[in-house]
Specification:
Helix content: 10-25%
Shape: globular
Largest sheet: 9 strands, mixed
Structural class: alpha/beta
Oligomer: single chain
CATH class: Alpha Beta
Order of helices and strands: EEEEEHEHHEHEHHEHEEEE
Bound molecules: adenosine-5'-diphosphate, magnesium ion
Distance between the termini: 32 Å
């Protein structure tokens, strides 16, 4: 359990309130929708169609960790490390600097096929935040589909034991299906859904917190925008 017991009620001094430790996402306007930030050590599915900003969202969150001296790992099967480095640099996030200091690493391997974390440097780097881009693609390349649920659960559990906050990117096909296998959303602690709705020549981007354990969430659909420093929630 990550967090602390705080305060006791004036009327009943025996009542102790548990408050989980939270980490900032670094995305302006988001943390206030989720009680101050993501629960440290939780696993959150970032779902959305293609081009909805899932990758940028996760890179921003890792960047925030790096600014607070937290190590990060980005596991990618979607894009090459080189493409992602360039995407990040477009927003001023110079990841290379942290790669040189061994505080950050891109991994182009399937973590579901080999949950030996040594292989991924998870322990050596004392990773605090991990992104898996994408869990949909990882699922597709695993041949034995029937064991997927178990493997995913095992992965999420091992990362939680290490108090690592994990963002699992999921390609959603439509509103009803947040993930390809249809099991991912039930395994994780939280689900954040990103959407891009075409509006004439523009598109309206939105963010919705669908679920977040241990968190009082600000429900509803909120507008999201790209900006010079990444993305922000505007209302
Ligand atoms: N600086 C920017 N300004 C506006 N839109 C941007 C900017 N950078 C990226 N985008 C938009 O974000 C999309 C890619 O975001 P990305 O996080 O890679 O999406 P996903 O991972 O969900 O496919 C692009 O298709 C583009 O529409
Ligand atoms: Mg992407």
């Amino acid at each position: 359990m990550v967090g602390k017991k705080t305060g006791s009620s004036g009327k009943n001094p025996k009542v102790i309130f548990y408050k989980p430790e939270r980490i900032k996402t670094g995305i302006p306007g988001l943390d206030k929708l989720i009680d101050g930030g993501l629960v440290k050590g939780s696993s959150v599915l970032i779902s959305g169609g293609t081009g909805t900003g899932k990758t940028i969202f996760c890179l921003r969150c890792l960047w925030e960790g790096l600014q607070n001296d937290e190590s990060g790992i980005y596991i990618t099967l979607e894009e090459t490390a080189e493409d992602l480095r360039r995407d990040a640099l477009g927003f001023g996030w110079d990841l290379k600097k942290y790669e040189k200091k061994s505080k950050f690493k891109f991994v182009e391997k399937n973590i579901l096929e080999d949950t030996n974390f040594e292989f991924f440097d998870v322990d050596r780097m004392k990773a605090s935040r991990i992104v898996i881009d994408s869990i949909s693609l990882l699922s597709l390349v695993v041949e034995d589909k029937s064991s997927m649920r178990g493997r995913l659960q095992e992965l999420v559990k091992s990362l939680k034991e290490r108090k690592i906050t994990t963002l699992l990117i999921s390609e959603s096909i439509d509103e009803e299906h947040l993930s390809i296998l249809g099991i991912e959303e039930f395994i994780v602690d939280g689900v954040i859904h990103l959407k891009s709705i075409p509006m004439g020549k523009m598109s309206q981007r939105t963010i919705e917190i669908r679920k977040m354990r241990e968190t009082k969430i600000n429900e509803g659909i909120h507008s999201m925008e790209f900006c010079k420093n990444g993305i922000k929630v505007v209302d």
